[in-house]
Automatic annotation (TrEMBL):
Secretion signal, residue range per the UniProt entry: none
Membrane-spanning parts: 55-78, 84-107, 128-147
Keyword annotations from UniProtKB, A to Z: Membrane, Transmembrane, Transmembrane helix
InterPro entries noted in UniProt: CHP02611, Uncharacterised_PGPGW_TM
Species of provenance: Streptodolium elevatio
Compositional bias segments (type: Low complexity): 19-32
Name of the protein in question: TIGR02611 family protein
Region annotation (Disordered) ranges: 1-43
Amino acid sequence: MDTGAAGATNKAQETDTVAPAAREAAEAAESAVPKPRGHGSRAPHFIKRSRTLHLTWQIGVAIVGFAVIVAGLIMMVIPGPGIPAVLVGLAILGTEFVWAQRTLLWTKDQATKAAQRALDPKTRRRNLIILIVGVVLIAAAAGLYLWKYGLAMPF
């Protein structure tokens, strides 16, 4: 951002050449759109100044992030919120590592696409038909079992 005399001169030239309504519309559009954060470390500035401190910070973030991801993977086998934990671990790693930021963005894009596909009327109809057929098959199997064996368990 230029705040010097050259910036003031450029602003004056811009004011003369651009219509005020167009300038106001451009400023409103620019302020309405949030500026994307850049990739890379989001460590505080005082940590980034020292190479050793920044490396220590990154190691700490990596340990915590991978621990949360491992806990999420374990929770996929045992009861617990496995997938959200893995995503939180990626978000923690994404504060320092670009590969984790990109992986998290790719995952968000895939989830959005899957949600859009799931809301498609044809897909919803197909899923409903599959559900109904599955329930009917399970009910038929349960009825057949009860007809053949009754309520007693076969030991």
